[in-house]
Amino acid sequence: MTTGFSSGSCRFADYFVICGLDTESGLEPDELSGENFEQSPLRRTFKSKVLAHYPDNVEWNPFDQDAVGMLCMPKGLAFRTQVDSLEPQFHSFIITREDGSRTYGFALTFFEEVTSKQICSAMQTLYHMHNPRPVLHAAPAISRLQRFNSYDISRDTLYVSKCICLITPMAFPQACRKVLQQLHQAVSSPQPPPLPLESFIYNILYEVPLPPSGRSLKFSGVYGPVVCQRPSTCELPLFDFSIGEMIHLLGMENVLQLFTCALLEMQILLYSQHYQRLMTVAESITALMFPFQWQHVYVPILPASLLHFLDAPVPYLMGLHSNGQDDRTKLELPQEANLCFVDIDNHFIELPEELPQFPNKLEFIQEISEVLMSFGVSPEGNIHSSDSQAKYRGFRSVDMVSDKRNGNLASPLNSYLLRENETIARLQALVKRTGVIVLCVIGAPLVLAADMRVQCDEEELKMHQLNIHVREVFANRFTQMFADYEVFVIQPSQDKESWFTNRDQMQNFDKASFLSDQPEPYLPFLSRFLETQMFASFIDSKILCHDDEEKEHTLRVFDSRVDKIRMLNVRTPTLRTSMYQKCTTIEEAEKAIEMRVVKIDHTALHPHLLDMKIGQGRYEQGFFPRLQSDVLSTGPTSNKWAKRSAPAQWRRRDRQKQHAEHLYLDNDQREKYIQEARNLGTTIRQPKLSNLSPSVIAQTNWKFVEGLLKECRNKTKRMLVEKMGREAVELGHGEVSITGVEENTLIASLCDLLERIWSHGLQVKQGKSALWSHLLHYQESKEKKNATPGGLGPPGKDVSYFNFHMMKMIFVFVFTYDHQTSSDLSICHFICRHIQNISEIKTDVGKARAWVRLSMEKKLLSRHLKQLLSEHELTKKLYKRYAFLRCDDEKEQFLYHLLSFNAVDYFCFTNVFTTIMIPYHVVAVPSKKLGGSMFTANPWVCVSGELAETGVLQVPRNTLEITFECQNLGKLTTVQMGHDNTGLYAKWLVECVVVRNEITGHTYKFPCGRWLGKGVDDGSLERILVGELMTPSTENDERMCRTPPMQQSPGMMRRFVTISPSSKPKLNTGQIQEGVGEAINGIVKHFHKPEKERGSLTLLLCGEYGLVWALEQVFQHGFKSPRLFKNVFIWDFLEKSQVYFESAEQREVTPDENWQTRVRHFCRFMRAINNTSRNIGKDGKFQMLVCLGARDHLLHHWIALLADCPITAQMYEDIALMKDRSLVNSLIRVLQTLQEFNITLEASLVKGVGI
């Protein structure tokens, strides 16, 4: 039925545009397109003009002549002769305004014969200037290439490109293609069209409305009906491009990699000689992101005049036209460190380094492949050569192995269902013979009866069906991954205005808690995805919308799907698994599409004769006519739907919501919040498509500089606040702690930012990493100025151990070397000796990232970069004037922000490069009193870290220092040291041991303060020392950087304290109880952290104020003073208790079976420790007993045993804690809390004990 439409409707198309050659202005070379003037004139491009557009303007969508002209004919005018292909080409484009709103364009480019003699003569002249040799007409052997590029005015017919275009508020490419093709057919056909072309154009502009939500619409083209449909508000948003075509062009593997890059907001450059392919891939990838939306620069077709925009140091998704001749190697791109390059025509994708794998990648590809095969589409796409097919198959099998290793693969998969495909083919043949239409086959075929006729082409319906199948599978992945996301949204406590004012300082999502609930294989991807602008904007929308009426369309649809999943799968967030759940919503979505094309909801008015003057409307075959502007410039006044009460306001709102298909009227304040929240962190959203003057380009680059500085400020603040953890929370900054995955993600994003800063305004690009290239240039310039001295030996090599009698010398040893590394030659030495020697790092980008991580770990990033940029001549040589690195004020602020990283300790190099070989330097420092000048034994050390230990290393007796190289030990935890008890004077008083990592500069001090030797102290010949990381003073930093001193972070390492009986601290029972509680609390917290974030348990057991120290205080409280000249140790008391228990067992004085079991355990552990071959001394044995008791959950039993033991009465005074029954019971209860934890001890703590 033909219907009128209400005032709430709006037009299908806003403008009809004609672009082409302006014969009055003649041929103007298109200088901005960068064409080579050595080419034949037929292969050059010339400026095109907008010849006409109807109507002149509509208030809700002002006509942007520059943008439309550029995008209708992005490469300008093209000339051809009769020997060339003159097939019309269709392409679509998009104009994204700075506020994020979009307008779509659909253009058909065809060739018309040039009738202007002046233009033909000009082309002939240009050809003779390019090729002065005369063309010999008689010569038959003109090569095909010459013929292709030549023009002779007397022999050849000259054609020029022309374009007709529709500008629409929504994307209906299939319908617009039909309209434009039928209009072109009307002028190329020998028969005139049924009505003047003005009637059809008037109809599409003024009489065809947009279909309402959830409805289909039919209207008339020149030769046939055109059908379009629009999804309802509970379906996925409108999308009318062909996803199947994208998969055919790239293959499913490449599509998923590209999709991952887009989700992580990397720079994406599409490359093709077909404009429509660029648009199809860009629109398809962004549509598959539902419910998220691309927030950055989006130019699917980059006009030739905007090529400088590839220099943009921001995330972007752009399409670059190729001429089909240059290969990838000839394409000079400003930055590639974080670039995803997609060569669409050659089925090739080049990925950034360290790209995480999309969760459940193989099962996901398998599910989509089943969908594709059911439509007869190969998941591998259009692979041209057998080589690439073999490579593709090999790539998939490698991925499968990787997926199994990462836990991504639940079960072995059959690659693609070929047998099912044959079944599908037979089934289709069968149903054709029986007179029914097969619409789709997934599992059970969905068949329509023959009398239910669809109102559109079968191919078009198949495209819509394939689209919705693939989109539903993609949407289902996000629904499954974020089913519990609402639980983790942090609702603001203040009003909306305050929230918005402080938005960039607020956290809107509890990322750490969300990630802790996710399966392990998801974390590399999710941790990076949660940091993106698209995710932040999605959560902002959620915060700003309280009820369904306020929600954006995408958010409302997504939330309804999440609700369904949560009703079907009743589960708690903590029970997340990586089990793959297939999509179950396809059938319902497909049915909605089919019903709309079987029964058309609305039919627009038919085209009709207009009130045109006599003689108007004539046309000449092969030429698109000059249309009558008087009839096309204004629409009808009688149509009800064309009347608008407030069109500008309504359309402005609709434009902001159209890509979400949201037609509810929302209040302006909420719109402002969402839009401005999206703009946070992206100073420039979109380049303005206009003919750019130098001043406009300069202004754009200034916006980039400001944007980079703002991003740097936000990133450093976020990283610092996250790293400072509890202190930050107390200051009101946000989340409690940062996970290792999250920290790694933040540092990787900082590396990406530095690459973008170093890529901005480059004169000539060399290598994929601009930062690494600059470092190498700096190294080269320094080497030219001064010859680099030989490799630095380990510091202090020529210093005898007597120099270490003053403890201050240790600090000189530790820190002067670090400050030497910031001298002029340090970066060269630093790069050459360390980063370049790491064989595991193969690429320039990897080396640059390793350099950044190492500089951060050494707390020298800001200083090194300041030094790098101090070479002003080099910077001028490498960078253009507008580059960020040549804006002095911004550069200083940037370095100041990076300086804040010195306030915290990062181990971002040590924790990432775990397999590299690292040189360590160890110095044993004897006590200044009785230092050991007569010491005759041979000392040894064994260094242990979180990743590995060295084994026993002999230390030269005369120097007491050693340098060795071994695989990365990680953060150092303990040093075992001792001697072989040889010679006349085998007694040694050791102050401490200092160990330095020669690459990172981290220096650990392991305090001792005890004797090693028989008959002295506790008779120990070896001790286990627990280390602390030494932090340098900030004096030099202050002088060099002129910034206020930063407060140092508390050291993570704890110091091991042993207390001899002569220096017992006088702690009261309350203090002792508090100490035990704190020690136990530290262990409990340790086990409540994610496994990868726990650090070393040894520090909590044996470090300063650890469990061993706390129990030492318990046993020393009220201990009876020993007789003169005799030290009595806790171990002596324990040995006497053991003797008593063993004799009690023999006398069978056993109160009960439990008591007997506990006694046996206690005596067995005591015997095992006493029988060890290690000479660890009495305090060392006590430490070992406490550690083993904690491991086997026996400490509380032993305390109960010892409290009741008669030996306690003999050796302790009445005030002793061990004699106070209530205090002992309290201690037992506290120790029982360790029972729920599986304590694993470091090998160095229990070496030699076989229990």
UniProtKB/TrEMBL annotation:
InterPro entries registered for this protein in UniProt: cDENN_dom (IPR001194), dDENN_dom (IPR005112), DEN5A/B (IPR047278), DENN_C (IPR043153), PLAT/LH2_dom (IPR001024), PLAT/LH2_dom_sf (IPR036392), PLAT_RAB6IP1 (IPR047277), Run_dom (IPR004012)
Pfam (any one): dDENN
Localization (cell): Membrane
GO biological process, any: retrograde transport, endosome to Golgi
MF term (GO), any: guanyl-nucleotide exchange factor activity
Domain of life of the native organism: Eukaryota
Family: Belongs to the RAB6IP1 family.
Record protein name field: DENN domain containing 5A
Species of the source: Sander lucioperca (Pike-perch)
Gene that specifies this protein: dennd5a
